[in-house]
Each structure stands twice: as structure tokens, then as C-alpha cells.
Write a structure and sequence with these properties.
Elements: H1 4-17, H2 21-35, H3 47-63, H4 68-81, H5 89-107, H6 113-143
Helix pairs in contact: 1-6, 2-3, 2-5, 4-6, 5-6
The chain binds protoporphyrin IX containing FE.
């Protein structure tokens, strides 16, 4: 999935984010909804609540980056929780763009092209697992 250097860059950048995770989570959703108002209706939880779940999930993923198998199973579980919502593939780009934007504006001078590339690779891998899990689930559901 990611090489050692990419993992290091992600862990370093996330260590700056964690102490500000409440504010940054809130900024992420504000930006996501301002750019894509049509997806706001999917979220029933308070932004505060949802933001805490997202930030804790990202922390778990980042802490576990060396343990690929465990991580893929964990991401599949998260994907299954999304089955309850009418989420489309293009929503993953919206979420990914909002995440990268929020990290970039908060990390300022510690953000560079290499860090950005590592984050994009991580996010794309997570999105890929989530999308393929949701497709598998839909197909087996239709077959039964
Ligand atoms: C990297 C990708 C993503 C991660 C890590 C992620 C993570 C999470 C987590 C941890 C939850 C809470 C689940 C629970 O209640 O235990 C959640 C809920 C949710 N996610 Fe995601 N998510 C991702 C992508 C998306 C995308 C692309 C959408 C589409 C807009 C989306 C929409 C939702 C919705 C609607 C909920 C339920 C919120 C509510 O009940 O108010 N997620 N997500």
C-alpha cells in the first residue's frame, strides 16, 4: 500500500492535526458542505459527533498503517456502515478533496508536494476498499 517514507510523512503531518482535531474536523465538514451542499442531507448526526467519529477513525487507520491486513478488515467494516446511506462513487472525490484541502490549509509550511502525494495515495486506497466492499455487498444482496 504505502512505503515507509509515505507512512512517516502521514504520521508526522497527523501528529500536528491530532491536538486540533475538534476544530479541524469541524472545518472539514464546513468546507465539504459549502462546496457540495447536496450531500449535507445525508448527515443526520451533529457535525461535532460525526467529526469526532471521522477523526478517531483516521487516527486508528494512521496508527495501524504498518498492519495492512487488520487495516483492510477495519476499512471494510466502516464501508459496511455506509451501506445504510445513498452514497455514490463521486462522493468519495468530494470527501477526498475536502480532506486534502483541510490538511493543507492547517499544516501550512509543513505541507509539501510529497506529503500531499502520500495523503492522496492513502485516501485513494481507503476509498477503493470502501467502494469495492459496497459493490460486493450489493451484488451478494441481489444474488440472494
Ligand atoms: C475515507 C472515507 C471515509 C471514512 C474514513 C468515513 C468514516 C465514517 C465513520 C467512522 C462514520 C461513523 C460510522 C458510525 O456511526 O459508527 C461515517 C458515517 C457516515 N459517513 Fe463516512 N467515511 C468516509 C467516506 C464517506 C463518504 C464519501 C460519504 C458520502 C457523502 C460518507 C458519508 C457518511 C454518512 C452519511 C455517515 C452517517 C452520518 C450520520 O449518521 O449523520 N462517508 N463515516
Amino acid at each position: 500500500m504505502l512505503n515507509h517514507r509515505e507512512i512517516l510523512l502521514i504520521k508526522m503531518s497527523w501528529s500536528y492535526i491530532v491536538p486540533m482535531s475538534d476544530t479541524i474536523g469541524f472545518e472539514f465538514y464546513s468546507y465539504l458542505f459549502s462546496k457540495n451542499p447536496e450531500i449535507k442531507r445525508l448527515f443526520e448526526n451533529s457535525i461535532q459527533n460525526q467529526s469526532k467519529k471521522l477523526m478517531d477513525t483516521l487516527t486508528f487507520i494512521i496508527v495501524s498503517l504498518m498492519h495492512l491486513n487488520t487495516l483492510e478488515n477495519y476499512i471494510e467494516v466502516i464501508a459496511m456502515k455506509h451501506q445504510a446511506y445513498p452514497i455514490q462513487e463521486e462522493h468519495y472525490d468530494m470527501v477526498g478533496n475536502a480532506l486534502i484541502h483541510t490538511l493543507k490549509v492547517n499544516l501550512k509550511q509543513t505541507w509539501d508536494k510529497e506529503t500531499e502525494a502520500a495523503w492522496i495515495k492513502l485516501y485513494n486506497r481507503i476509498a477503493e476498499i470502501m467502494i469495492s466492499t459496497s459493490k460486493k455487498h450489493t451484488v451478494s444482496h441481489l444474488a440472494s
